[in-house]
Amino acid sequence: MHERILVVDDEQGIQGFIETNLVRAGFEVIQALDGQTALQKVADNNIDCILLDLGLPDSDGFDICREVRKNHTTPIIILTARGDDIDKILGLELGADDYIVKPFNPRELVARIKAVLRRVSTPPPADAEPQNQRHIKLFDLTIDLDRHEVRRGAQQIDLTPKEYDLLSFLAEHPGYAFSREKLLQEVWGYDFFGDDRTVDVHIRRLREKLEDDPNTPFFILTVWGVGYKFREQNP
Fold this sequence. Notes:
There is one protein chain. The chain is of the alpha/beta class. The protein has helices at residues 12-24, 35-44, 61-71, 85-93, 106-120, 161-171, 180-188, 197-210; strands at residues 4-8, 28-32, 49-52, 76-80, 98-101, 135-138, 141-144, 149-152, 155-157, 178-179, 220-223, 227-230. Strand 11 (220-223) and strand 12 form a beta hairpin.
């Protein structure tokens, strides 16, 4: 089955250009010319990835990103002419997984879509038994590596794919400090075109979802002059 990509952009020329390249790469494309249509398409279809323009005729793309994130963890790649750092950071804070500035190379676009989809399409082995599921358990936090689920105590924590990948990587190496550059390399998994503030944004979002007090984090610690680490659990 071809992965289904929702392209949200009010410029039909851009829509056609993107569709041609994505279909050539083996994707199925669904189009939406405005924000409300996009939300309806997300609700009515099994969407694998969303390409979201910010300048929509009926709403701001940031608002659409926020609405999607209320109920869905579908990967979102913002595709826009706005290249200001503040827009990039805001998009990431609202739950976007990546940010591409127009004009763009179609090969780069396809590569980024494939990279996002790889991170969310690794199913457990078909013959895996429930008792053999792989877990990381540190303190009261449990990460189910097969189901891609995170719980704190009995409460399930809803994370975006990138947040989950970042948390899993840190939790798999408790006590080890990683630089932002190393985290970009290990978690994003391709030559990142942004800057290392992307890591800071995702760490802040994780703390808001995991911590009792995000300003005094317990799980994900800042190592000044280095980067971040997951707290080590003593025997």
